[in-house]
Predict the structure.
Amino acid sequence: MGKIEMTYANAIKEAISEEMRRDQNVYMLGEDIGVYRGAFGVSGGMIDEFGPERIIDTPISETAFVGCAIGSAVAGMRPVVEIMFSDFMAVCWDMIINQAPKMRYMFGGKVSVPMVLRTASGGGTGAAAQHSQSLEAMLCHVPGLKVVIPSTPYDAKGLLKSAIRDNNPVMFLEQKLLYRTKGMVPEEEYTIPLGVADMKREGKDCTIVTYGRMVHMCLAAAEAVSKEGIQTEVIDLRTLLPMDKPSIIESVKKTKHLIVVHEAVKTGGLGGEIAASIAESEAFNYLDAPIKRLASEDVPVPFCPILEKGVLPDEIKIAQAIRDVLA
Amino acid sequence: MGKIEMTYANAIKEAISEEMRRDQNVYMLGEDIGVYRGAFGVSGGMIDEFGPERIIDTPISETAFVGCAIGSAVAGMRPVVEIMFSDFMAVCWDMIINQAPKMRYMFGGKVSVPMVLRTASGGGTGAAAQHSQSLEAMLCHVPGLKVVIPSTPYDAKGLLKSAIRDNNPVMFLEQKLLYRTKGMVPEEEYTIPLGVADMKREGKDCTIVTYGRMVHMCLAAAEAVSKEGIQTEVIDLRTLLPMDKPSIIESVKKTKHLIVVHEAVKTGGLGGEIAASIAESEAFNYLDAPIKRLASEDVPVPFCPILEKGVLPDEIKIAQAIRDVLA
Amino acid sequence: MATKKSAIDKNIAIELLRKMLTSRKFEEKVQYYFSLGMIHGTTHLSIGEEGTAAGTCGALEPQDQIYATHRGHSQAVCKGIDVYKMMAEIFARANGVCKGKGGSMHIADKDRGVLGANGILGPSLALACGVAFAHKKRKEDIVTVAFFGDGASNEGVFHESLNLASVWNLPVLFICTNNTYGMSTHITKVMKDTDIANRAKPYMIPAKTIDGNDVWEVYNTIKEARKYVAEGNGPMMIVENTYRISGHSKSDGNLYRTKEEIASWKEKCPIKRWKEKLIENGVCTQEEIDAVEKETTDLIEGAVKFALDSPYPKLEDVYNDVYAD
Amino acid sequence: MATKKSAIDKNIAIELLRKMLTSRKFEEKVQYYFSLGMIHGTTHLSIGEEGTAAGTCGALEPQDQIYATHRGHSQAVCKGIDVYKMMAEIFARANGVCKGKGGSMHIADKDRGVLGANGILGPSLALACGVAFAHKKRKEDIVTVAFFGDGASNEGVFHESLNLASVWNLPVLFICTNNTYGMSTHITKVMKDTDIANRAKPYMIPAKTIDGNDVWEVYNTIKEARKYVAEGNGPMMIVENTYRISGHSKSDGNLYRTKEEIASWKEKCPIKRWKEKLIENGVCTQEEIDAVEKETTDLIEGAVKFALDSPYPKLEDVYNDVYAD
Ligand SMILES: Cc1ncc(C[n+]2csc(CCOP(=O)(O)OP(=O)(O)O)c2C)c(N)n1
Ligand SMILES: Cc1ncc(C[n+]2csc(CCOP(=O)(O)OP(=O)(O)O)c2C)c(N)n1
Ligand SMILES: [Mg+2]
Ligand SMILES: [Mg+2]
């Protein structure tokens, strides 16, 4: 099977484009996704292929257009809706937590909401407190949603295709700082099932569970400590809800050490869920050290790059955490 | 010091009324809080004492009136704003997570937002998926907010007075099913500091960390298992953010067993944060069994009482959890 | 838009009466069993507002779709939902339209064009845009209706949805059931201009305010409005003025309104008025009206019996319907 | 409301010119240092829109308060923020108005009546209602201004806030800087009626659309509007038509508009027009204008120097300012 190199942004575009070719019910809507190509350039050129009837620029009315996406999904379409920055989910939060994920249940299973909501998540861009958050933990607290965060072009494409074919509302959180990163992607069609984690590096001394941009930081840290003889296993969750706990448990039983790393602020972050799941599982008795969470400091994301870098986890902090846990 | 018996709802009313008498800057706003007395009757009679200028009925425009509360707080007032059901926070989520808690930080400390947002939280009322949620975990993931859930009239009054005097946005989540419960409250003025947990029952065998309505379920369960010779310590967090971790750690070191109980759905709930905090603390090495979380099942709250009761934790399930952890 | 009222067709007349009486009797039973503690949770009755539901839904085509409000029993009934299954839902039974998972505030049956009531005020307006978007795209002769209250029209999503429907020319009919109260709050306290139809103007959406307690006016207005919308002219808004005789929900001390006010509106009851008009105009005989009374009474009694005979859901069902396969 | 334009007062004229030039030069420096990679993050320039900021803020009283937009540099500058500290903020320095924690999108200085720019479109309209509420309650002669864009007027909070301000009679002045684009999206794609002033009608809020590139028209309109609002008549809305010469933000290929369109608006540059008018009407001499040019150039150069000389925040500062004591 041939492979080609492409960016994370292009992998996303390819995934949507392929699904749009395959299924007339798939369409995109969001702010400035047409000629402007989206704030991060993801949908560049799509309007040329699919036209403004299927690549739809909306008014700046997130509640209305996410609501519109949901309604159209109820009526049998498969919207892929873009919220420019994940922080803006807050202005249409009711649609995200009270409408899309609850309808099927409240209505006794008679409707389904096959919608993908894509949005750009994460900091490190100097965009300050209202354009840099990682809000996935809030979404993972909502039964009825699925939550996906891909870390590579390969994963992004395969997971997004599955998300579009999924019959449930899927929150697809893209990582701003990964859009321009490159990776190999099969030329042939493929999908990656939702709910399955991926071991991005094998090791026997310590397990790191992470996702999104932090996967790369963790891999770099694992590489760094490997020179000190520490073999770190890096598990990329890929789908956060539902979470692939068996993979984590298996790894922890082997390595007896667990570190959870994410970019979201620590308190109330998904690290708590992951750590607690393991602490209450059979793997608990295998642990040789307390579970460690490494995450952003509990402050709004500051503008100044020195401060911002200071609050975010990075490979140096992660490497140190590995050493600490094994000490 | 004399004490009188009053309901949880009246304790809340007393707290606000006292603060309104004390400080002209305190006022209330929300939907139908005047002659209607609020959906849960909390503000009954307040309009007679304070008039419609200070007990203000709003249009059904949560974003505007919470925004208005925030703006007035920036300008030096001390609003106590009511959102009828905590589920409706979703329609003004931007105000709650992106505006109120971030302003001070983004603006370099020059403004403060001394606002209390009160709202009725929790299920068990047969009100189904959109009127029964416990959303505190989402709020606890937002630096800049404080989050309080009182379990008794005494705590409600003392904590709310502190919340009103606090110079930060405080989310005050009242428990629907507790409004009519009664308890003793001092006749004299008192406050309870935010951020301090309360040991509601002492024990040496097992620690339960909980808050809100579940405190009573846990106490009942502790009582039940006490007949089997199990002495359970019940810690009521009262303030969820910031969390009083030292109290939990101290208790766990003593009892060597930890159960976390909350009504919110398990996945992504605050139980993860609590369990993880302990699993990464010095208390980890004292634990004789995996930390157990008991919470609602991961489904939207169903209407049918049989189903709803089935998903909610209760004293029987909690008692069983205690036995399991100690087995 | 001047609505032309044609002479009253007897079949339609009887059907409108049947819808109103079915709604009324349905809700009276709900109220009764609620007061007995046999219905759980909360419920928002629309007693007194049946003219809006019957006139509106009566003028729609079977394939049309509606989003009902939290006060939506009569809207669902008039759209043709199975009242047996709806009653079973309110009694929290497994045979309910939502398998007992939704209850009074979440009545829905997509197969009958009832896309759902909502416990949150406002979102239905946007959801309706989406449904209409899909039907427009598929060039189907389907109109989507979003019911909402006067109070709910103060939510931001009202503005966003009307604007979206306007610029995208969506086949949505926005129906405001204006009963002048949002819970206890009178419309004059929350709007300076209380003619909600004016709120459609900035979007260039044609709008009209009518007497919602005159079922014939409602029916005729909606017939025309449906035609306008279905022909691809874009959305329309109709404000149907009416009054809620019943309290806001289970707990309402009616402290915010006078007994006289309620009494005066009982006089304007849409069912009473319609019966009188049918007799006056010689459209039906008293016997024919009595027959509809009897028929609807029997129907609702049957519904209650069905509901009471239906089993509760099983606890293991609680996990179903969270996710679709 | 017919605005009466008085003869041009020289002091005011110079001050308006000063404000516009300060803004323009401030942003040109930001653009330059941004292109050098010396400014971090993103930035939304208002080059071409200075007439709206200067005319509006110029007509306010010192005690008045403003909420600026994401494109709010010129609004803050014209309200009288310390441009040294504001430049330092944009350069992420500890001496910045927000101690380096806010940056371009969050410029604020309450002491100068700049309550803050916002990274989220819309909330400022509601926040402004709250500030106005407090001032009204305290019977202070303070008007609160909420700036917002044409695009942001499609957010639901616009509707809720205008309604609230209307029914509560709040001393708020809503100022729409209508540059006909929300990012790349032209107003005609997102509104059927593009005269945004009409959107104020359902709330019975007086509104007016003016040429935002005519600083004198803006100044006079806002003077009157401020008076109207300050006198307790309730809110008012002014739509100031203008054009953004600069791109939307750091990344803008201008694919959605033509070079000709941009060029035509450069001709209508508010600064150019104001200078021409002052000369034409004999209000100032070219020398006087040149003096303001020089003064503002020097000021901004000083600001850049101050910013560059200022220290970065210390890492330990990151924990400060999350909570108030
Ligand atoms: C977002 C939101 N806010 C508040 C409520 C609580 N609530 C339920 S019904 C109601 C009054 C609604 O008034 P209106 O829209 O006029 O409908 P009516 O009840 O009069 O039929 C309120 C405030 C809610 N369900 N959702
Ligand atoms: C709630 C929200 N949605 C989207 C954005 C992204 N965004 C920033 S500026 C902008 C365009 C705003 O247009 P307008 O209000 O006309 O102001 P202008 O940029 O033209 O000054 C958009 C879509 C945002 N910041 N907040
Ligand atoms: Mg009403
Ligand atoms: Mg604009």
